TrEMBL record:
GO terms for molecular function: acyltransferase activity; peptidoglycan L,D-transpeptidase activity. InterPro entries: Big_10, LD-transpeptidase, LD_TPept_cat_dom, Transpep_catalytic_dom. Residues 163-291 form the L,D-TPase catalytic domain. CDD domains: LDT_IgD_like_2, YkuD_like. Keywords: Acyltransferase, Cell shape, Cell wall biogenesis/degradation, Peptidoglycan synthesis, Transferase. Residues 28-61 are annotated as: Disordered. This is Ig-like domain-containing protein. One of its GO terms (cellular component) is extracellular region. It comes from Streptomyces sp. R39. The keyword ATP-binding does not apply.
Amino acid sequence: MGRRKGGIGIAVGTVAMLVGVTACGGGGSDKASGGDAKASGKPSASASPSPTKPLGPPMLLDTITPQTGTTVGVAMPISVIFTNPVAAKARATVEKHMKVSTSQPVVGAWHWMGDRRADWRPKTYWPSGTKVRVDADMTGVSNGNGRYGVHGYTHTFTIGDDVRADVSVTGHTMKVTRNGQTVRTLSINAGSAQYPTWDGTMAVIDKQEKVHMTSCSVGISCDKGSPNFYDLTLPWDIHLTQSGTYVHYSTGDPNPGSGSARGSHGCVHLSLSDAKWFYGQVKQGDPVTITGSPRGKAPADNGYADFNLGWDQWLAGSASGEQTTTAL
Protein backbone atom coordinates (compact mmCIF):
# COMPACT_ATOMS: atom_id res chain seq x y z
CA MET A 1 0.00 0.00 0.00
CA GLY A 2 1.18 3.55 -0.35
CA ARG A 3 1.84 6.52 1.69
CA ARG A 4 0.42 9.97 1.22
CA LYS A 5 2.89 12.51 -0.15
CA GLY A 6 4.87 14.05 2.66
CA GLY A 7 8.20 15.44 3.77
CA ILE A 8 11.28 13.85 5.26
CA GLY A 9 12.61 14.01 8.76
CA ILE A 10 11.78 13.53 12.41
CA ALA A 11 13.12 15.11 15.57
CA VAL A 12 16.47 14.06 16.98
CA GLY A 13 16.24 11.10 19.32
CA THR A 14 12.75 10.03 18.32
CA VAL A 15 11.80 6.72 16.78
CA ALA A 16 10.68 6.86 13.14
CA MET A 17 6.90 6.63 12.90
CA LEU A 18 4.54 6.86 9.97
CA VAL A 19 2.20 9.77 10.35
CA GLY A 20 -1.12 10.47 8.70
CA VAL A 21 -3.27 8.57 6.28
CA THR A 22 -1.57 6.12 3.95
CA ALA A 23 -2.74 3.87 1.17
CA CYS A 24 -1.68 1.23 -1.29
CA GLY A 25 -1.50 2.21 -4.94
CA GLY A 26 0.17 3.99 -7.80
CA GLY A 27 -0.52 7.56 -6.76
CA GLY A 28 1.38 9.89 -4.48
CA SER A 29 4.99 10.99 -4.47
CA ASP A 30 7.89 8.82 -5.57
CA LYS A 31 10.24 10.53 -3.15
CA ALA A 32 11.90 9.09 -0.08
CA SER A 33 10.49 9.47 3.36
CA GLY A 34 10.45 7.90 6.77
CA GLY A 35 13.17 6.56 9.01
CA ASP A 36 15.20 9.74 8.98
CA ALA A 37 16.63 11.46 12.00
CA LYS A 38 17.37 15.14 12.25
CA ALA A 39 21.04 15.81 11.67
CA SER A 40 22.77 15.99 15.01
CA GLY A 41 26.17 17.14 16.13
CA LYS A 42 27.43 19.76 18.55
CA PRO A 43 29.10 22.85 17.12
CA SER A 44 32.85 22.90 17.65
CA ALA A 45 34.98 25.85 18.69
CA SER A 46 35.25 26.78 14.99
CA ALA A 47 31.52 26.56 14.39
CA SER A 48 31.26 29.97 12.70
CA PRO A 49 32.00 30.40 8.97
CA SER A 50 35.60 30.93 7.95
CA PRO A 51 36.55 34.63 7.97
CA THR A 52 37.72 34.25 4.37
CA LYS A 53 34.14 33.42 3.34
CA PRO A 54 31.42 36.05 3.05
CA LEU A 55 28.85 36.03 5.81
CA GLY A 56 25.45 34.78 4.76
CA PRO A 57 22.65 32.42 5.67
CA PRO A 58 23.84 29.02 6.91
CA MET A 59 23.93 25.77 4.97
CA LEU A 60 22.31 23.17 7.19
CA LEU A 61 21.58 19.48 7.04
CA ASP A 62 17.92 18.66 7.55
CA THR A 63 18.32 14.92 8.12
CA ILE A 64 20.92 12.19 8.16
CA THR A 65 19.80 8.58 7.86
CA PRO A 66 20.29 6.15 9.56
CA GLN A 67 19.69 7.61 12.98
CA THR A 68 22.81 7.54 15.10
CA GLY A 69 23.17 4.47 17.34
CA THR A 70 20.91 2.24 15.26
CA THR A 71 21.44 -1.19 13.71
CA VAL A 72 20.31 -1.40 10.09
CA GLY A 73 20.22 -3.80 7.16
CA VAL A 74 22.80 -4.51 4.47
CA ALA A 75 21.04 -2.40 1.80
CA MET A 76 20.69 0.77 3.89
CA PRO A 77 22.23 3.86 2.30
CA ILE A 78 23.56 6.86 4.15
CA SER A 79 21.11 9.56 3.10
CA VAL A 80 21.82 13.24 3.73
CA ILE A 81 19.14 15.86 3.14
CA PHE A 82 20.14 19.54 2.91
CA THR A 83 17.72 22.31 3.85
CA ASN A 84 18.57 24.22 0.65
CA PRO A 85 19.73 23.25 -2.86
CA VAL A 86 23.39 22.43 -3.42
CA ALA A 87 24.73 23.70 -6.75
CA ALA A 88 26.40 21.20 -9.08
CA LYS A 89 29.67 23.15 -8.92
CA ALA A 90 29.82 22.70 -5.13
CA ARG A 91 28.95 19.00 -4.88
CA ALA A 92 32.47 17.54 -5.16
CA THR A 93 33.63 19.71 -2.25
CA VAL A 94 30.54 18.89 -0.22
CA GLU A 95 31.05 15.15 -0.82
CA LYS A 96 34.69 15.37 0.29
CA HIS A 97 33.55 16.92 3.56
CA MET A 98 31.19 14.01 4.27
CA LYS A 99 33.68 11.31 5.26
CA VAL A 100 32.54 7.71 5.68
CA SER A 101 34.65 5.53 8.00
CA THR A 102 34.13 1.81 8.63
CA SER A 103 35.51 -1.02 10.73
CA GLN A 104 36.46 -2.86 7.52
CA PRO A 105 37.19 -1.42 4.06
CA VAL A 106 34.08 -0.83 1.95
CA VAL A 107 34.01 0.51 -1.62
CA GLY A 108 31.20 2.98 -2.28
CA ALA A 109 30.26 6.42 -3.54
CA TRP A 110 27.94 9.38 -3.10
CA HIS A 111 25.09 9.97 -5.55
CA TRP A 112 22.85 13.03 -5.82
CA MET A 113 19.08 12.52 -5.90
CA GLY A 114 18.29 16.01 -7.12
CA ASP A 115 19.92 19.06 -5.52
CA ARG A 116 19.06 18.49 -1.85
CA ARG A 117 19.62 14.77 -1.24
CA ALA A 118 22.92 12.89 -1.42
CA ASP A 119 23.11 9.13 -0.69
CA TRP A 120 26.23 7.04 -0.06
CA ARG A 121 25.91 3.33 -0.73
CA PRO A 122 28.43 0.52 -1.03
CA LYS A 123 29.10 -1.00 -4.45
CA THR A 124 27.56 -4.21 -3.14
CA TYR A 125 25.66 -4.75 0.11
CA TRP A 126 27.34 -3.84 3.40
CA PRO A 127 29.10 -6.74 5.18
CA SER A 128 27.19 -7.71 8.33
CA GLY A 129 28.78 -6.48 11.53
CA THR A 130 30.37 -3.41 9.94
CA LYS A 131 30.61 -0.35 12.18
CA VAL A 132 30.01 2.89 10.26
CA ARG A 133 30.72 6.51 11.10
CA VAL A 134 29.71 9.54 9.05
CA ASP A 135 31.54 12.82 9.72
CA ALA A 136 29.91 15.67 7.82
CA ASP A 137 32.24 18.58 8.59
CA MET A 138 30.35 21.42 6.95
CA THR A 139 32.10 24.28 8.73
CA GLY A 140 32.81 26.96 6.12
CA VAL A 141 31.77 24.72 3.22
CA SER A 142 29.78 26.46 0.48
CA ASN A 143 26.66 25.06 -1.15
CA GLY A 144 27.43 27.12 -4.27
CA ASN A 145 24.35 29.25 -3.73
CA GLY A 146 25.59 31.73 -1.16
CA ARG A 147 25.24 29.56 1.94
CA TYR A 148 28.04 28.21 4.14
CA GLY A 149 28.07 25.44 6.72
CA VAL A 150 28.40 26.48 10.34
CA HIS A 151 29.26 23.22 12.13
CA GLY A 152 29.81 19.49 11.76
CA TYR A 153 27.58 16.45 12.20
CA THR A 154 28.48 12.91 13.25
CA HIS A 155 26.38 9.76 12.98
CA THR A 156 27.41 6.22 13.91
CA PHE A 157 25.51 3.02 13.19
CA THR A 158 26.03 -0.73 12.78
CA ILE A 159 25.14 -3.16 9.99
CA GLY A 160 23.19 -6.04 11.50
CA ASP A 161 22.35 -9.53 10.28
CA ASP A 162 21.99 -9.99 6.52
CA VAL A 163 18.20 -10.42 6.32
CA ARG A 164 16.70 -10.49 2.81
CA ALA A 165 13.25 -11.10 1.37
CA ASP A 166 12.84 -12.23 -2.25
CA VAL A 167 9.30 -11.87 -3.60
CA SER A 168 8.08 -13.68 -6.71
CA VAL A 169 4.93 -11.96 -7.99
CA THR A 170 4.12 -14.78 -10.43
CA GLY A 171 5.05 -17.55 -7.99
CA HIS A 172 3.10 -15.98 -5.10
CA THR A 173 5.98 -16.58 -2.70
CA MET A 174 8.38 -14.63 -0.51
CA LYS A 175 11.58 -16.35 0.59
CA VAL A 176 13.17 -14.95 3.73
CA THR A 177 16.86 -15.59 4.37
CA ARG A 178 19.15 -14.69 7.26
CA ASN A 179 22.91 -14.66 6.74
CA GLY A 180 22.54 -16.79 3.61
CA GLN A 181 20.27 -19.44 5.13
CA THR A 182 16.61 -19.80 4.17
CA VAL A 183 14.41 -19.19 7.21
CA ARG A 184 10.92 -19.49 5.73
CA THR A 185 9.07 -19.27 2.41
CA LEU A 186 5.74 -17.47 2.73
CA SER A 187 2.68 -17.32 0.49
CA ILE A 188 1.93 -13.85 -0.90
CA ASN A 189 -0.20 -11.91 -3.32
CA ALA A 190 1.10 -8.79 -5.01
CA GLY A 191 -0.28 -6.11 -7.32
CA SER A 192 -2.97 -6.60 -9.93
CA ALA A 193 -2.73 -5.85 -13.64
CA GLN A 194 -4.40 -2.49 -12.97
CA TYR A 195 -2.23 -1.68 -9.93
CA PRO A 196 1.08 -3.56 -10.36
CA THR A 197 3.72 -3.72 -7.65
CA TRP A 198 7.09 -2.08 -8.13
CA ASP A 199 9.87 -4.43 -9.17
CA GLY A 200 13.44 -4.23 -7.93
CA THR A 201 15.16 -3.95 -4.58
CA MET A 202 13.80 -1.62 -1.92
CA ALA A 203 15.43 -1.23 1.48
CA VAL A 204 12.92 -1.16 4.33
CA ILE A 205 12.16 2.48 5.19
CA ASP A 206 10.47 1.74 8.50
CA LYS A 207 7.74 -0.42 10.00
CA GLN A 208 4.64 0.15 12.13
CA GLU A 209 2.24 -2.14 13.95
CA LYS A 210 -0.82 -0.39 12.49
CA VAL A 211 -1.33 1.96 9.55
CA HIS A 212 -4.49 3.75 8.43
CA MET A 213 -4.76 3.25 4.66
CA THR A 214 -7.23 4.84 2.29
CA SER A 215 -7.69 4.61 -1.47
CA CYS A 216 -8.53 8.30 -1.67
CA SER A 217 -5.18 9.44 -0.25
CA VAL A 218 -3.26 8.10 -3.27
CA GLY A 219 -5.81 8.91 -5.92
CA ILE A 220 -7.19 5.41 -6.51
CA SER A 221 -10.79 6.19 -5.60
CA CYS A 222 -12.65 8.57 -3.31
CA ASP A 223 -16.01 7.07 -4.30
CA LYS A 224 -17.31 4.85 -1.50
CA GLY A 225 -19.34 2.92 -4.06
CA SER A 226 -16.27 1.97 -6.11
CA PRO A 227 -14.94 -1.61 -5.85
CA ASN A 228 -11.47 -0.05 -5.45
CA PHE A 229 -12.46 2.12 -2.48
CA TYR A 230 -11.04 1.24 0.93
CA ASP A 231 -10.58 2.94 4.29
CA LEU A 232 -8.88 0.50 6.63
CA THR A 233 -6.46 0.31 9.54
CA LEU A 234 -4.26 -2.70 8.88
CA PRO A 235 -1.58 -4.41 11.00
CA TRP A 236 2.08 -5.43 10.65
CA ASP A 237 3.16 -2.94 7.99
CA ILE A 238 6.64 -2.92 6.42
CA HIS A 239 7.16 0.31 4.46
CA LEU A 240 9.08 -0.03 1.18
CA THR A 241 8.40 3.06 -0.95
CA GLN A 242 7.18 6.58 -0.39
CA SER A 243 4.73 6.18 -3.28
CA GLY A 244 2.99 3.45 -1.39
CA THR A 245 4.41 -0.07 -1.34
CA TYR A 246 4.06 -2.07 1.88
CA VAL A 247 4.38 -5.69 2.92
CA HIS A 248 1.48 -6.31 5.29
CA TYR A 249 -1.73 -8.12 6.13
CA SER A 250 -4.94 -7.13 4.36
CA THR A 251 -8.41 -8.00 5.57
CA GLY A 252 -9.48 -8.05 1.92
CA ASP A 253 -6.99 -10.82 1.13
CA PRO A 254 -6.70 -12.90 4.31
CA ASN A 255 -5.28 -16.09 2.72
CA PRO A 256 -2.86 -14.97 0.01
CA GLY A 257 -1.14 -17.40 -2.33
CA SER A 258 -1.50 -19.02 -5.74
CA GLY A 259 -4.83 -20.56 -4.70
CA SER A 260 -6.54 -17.22 -4.15
CA ALA A 261 -4.37 -15.16 -6.56
CA ARG A 262 -6.15 -11.97 -5.58
CA GLY A 263 -4.23 -8.91 -6.70
CA SER A 264 -3.54 -5.97 -4.39
CA HIS A 265 -3.39 -2.26 -5.15
CA GLY A 266 0.40 -2.55 -5.31
CA CYS A 267 1.32 -3.96 -1.91
CA VAL A 268 2.57 -7.42 -0.98
CA HIS A 269 -0.03 -9.28 1.11
CA LEU A 270 0.76 -11.88 3.75
CA SER A 271 -1.54 -13.88 5.99
CA LEU A 272 -2.05 -12.43 9.46
CA SER A 273 0.31 -14.90 11.17
CA ASP A 274 2.96 -14.56 8.45
CA ALA A 275 2.73 -10.75 8.50
CA LYS A 276 3.30 -10.69 12.26
CA TRP A 277 6.22 -13.10 11.94
CA PHE A 278 7.84 -11.12 9.11
CA TYR A 279 7.38 -7.88 11.05
CA GLY A 280 9.50 -9.38 13.82
CA GLN A 281 12.27 -10.40 11.42
CA VAL A 282 13.04 -7.22 9.49
CA LYS A 283 14.59 -3.87 10.29
CA GLN A 284 15.29 -0.61 8.50
CA GLY A 285 17.63 -1.20 5.57
CA ASP A 286 16.88 -4.89 4.96
CA PRO A 287 16.46 -5.47 1.20
CA VAL A 288 13.14 -6.66 -0.18
CA THR A 289 13.56 -7.66 -3.84
CA ILE A 290 10.45 -8.07 -5.98
CA THR A 291 10.50 -9.81 -9.37
CA GLY A 292 7.87 -10.72 -11.95
CA SER A 293 5.88 -7.48 -11.97
CA PRO A 294 5.29 -5.58 -15.23
CA ARG A 295 5.65 -2.17 -13.62
CA GLY A 296 9.45 -1.94 -13.68
CA LYS A 297 11.90 -0.99 -10.96
CA ALA A 298 11.08 1.62 -8.37
CA PRO A 299 13.02 4.88 -8.87
CA ALA A 300 16.10 5.00 -6.67
CA ASP A 301 14.76 7.95 -4.67
CA ASN A 302 11.35 6.38 -4.08
CA GLY A 303 12.24 5.51 -0.53
CA TYR A 304 15.65 3.82 -0.37
CA ALA A 305 15.73 1.91 -3.67
CA ASP A 306 19.36 2.88 -4.27
CA PHE A 307 20.36 -0.61 -5.42
CA ASN A 308 17.97 -0.33 -8.37
CA LEU A 309 20.74 1.63 -10.08
CA GLY A 310 23.69 -0.23 -11.55
CA TRP A 311 27.13 0.83 -10.34
CA ASP A 312 27.90 2.82 -13.51
CA GLN A 313 24.57 4.62 -13.16
CA TRP A 314 25.34 5.31 -9.52
CA LEU A 315 28.76 6.78 -10.30
CA ALA A 316 27.24 8.97 -13.01
CA GLY A 317 25.44 10.85 -10.23
CA SER A 318 28.57 11.27 -8.08
CA ALA A 319 30.76 14.37 -8.10
CA SER A 320 33.81 12.75 -6.49
CA GLY A 321 33.55 9.17 -7.74
CA GLU A 322 34.27 5.78 -6.22
CA GLN A 323 36.05 5.69 -2.88
CA THR A 324 37.16 3.25 -0.22
CA THR A 325 36.10 4.08 3.31
CA THR A 326 38.55 5.35 5.90
CA ALA A 327 39.42 2.89 8.67
CA LEU A 328 37.77 3.46 12.04
